[in-house]
Design the sequence.
């Protein structure tokens, strides 16, 4: 059996991510005096960016201030990323588009999901010329909670008319991506080594497959 739906993470999985996200995090957190460690950021790769700022701000600011400070920091983060992505190099993971097109040609529905807010996601999809490649593109604010919650996966299923989560494949480069797939009870939970984490980290996270990158997906499903 092959999947009816593939839900792929974006940065680090489908698109190269070479440090822009971490740099934008550091700038925004420092500017709004939100304490963090590099371990904090590494553990939250793949998470909803809004949720990350709210969680980290909640360690220092009172409940009445968290939403305001986190919202401003998120806006600064997004402004920094948009400026980088509007003018900088935006590239796919080698072989990603060809792999996705092959899977789509074989009848698989494709959803792209991200922890970025909508404006950043749309910018990146446009820069990569992927507007018509995916059947659905989801941003971090398209679900009530981000990864490791399974809601982005369920949203893709609902919007694309897929009823059996056992026919869904989830692919990503972070433990949170894999945890979301496991929490959804997806039939395939696939880690790729093209992004934020290596074999030691992803291998220790529940999964069904580990691949070098999404370029290897068509061979897995043949």
Sequence:
């Amino acid at each position: 059996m092959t999947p009816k739906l593939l839900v792929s993470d974006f940065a680090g999985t489908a698109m190269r991510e070479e440090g822009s996200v971490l740099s934008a995090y550091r700038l925004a957190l420092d500017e709004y005096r939100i304490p963090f460690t590099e371990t904090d950021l590494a553990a939250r790769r793949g998470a909803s960016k809004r949720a990350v700022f709210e969680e980290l701000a909640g360690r220092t600011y009172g409940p009445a201030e968290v939403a305001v400070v986190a919202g401003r920091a998120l806006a600064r983060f997004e402004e920094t990323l948009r400026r980088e992505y509007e003018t900088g190099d935006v590239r796919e993971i080698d072989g990603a588009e060809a792999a996705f097109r092959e899977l789509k040609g074989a009848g698989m529905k494709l959803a792209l999901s991200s922890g970025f807010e909508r404006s950043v996601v749309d910018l990146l999809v446009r820069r990569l010329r992927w507007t018509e490649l995916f059947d659905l593109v989801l941003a971090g604010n398209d679900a009530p909670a981000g990864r490791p919650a399974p809601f982005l996966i369920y949203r893709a299923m609902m919007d694309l008319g897929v009823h059996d989560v056992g026919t869904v494949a989830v692919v990503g480069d972070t433990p949170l991506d894999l945890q979301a797939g496991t929490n959804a009870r997806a039939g395939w939970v696939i880690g790729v080594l093209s992004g934020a984490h290596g074999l030691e980290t992803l291998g220790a996270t529940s999964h069904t497959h580990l691949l070098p990158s999404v370029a290897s997906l068509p061979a897995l499903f043949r």
The two ends are 10 Å apart (CA to CA).
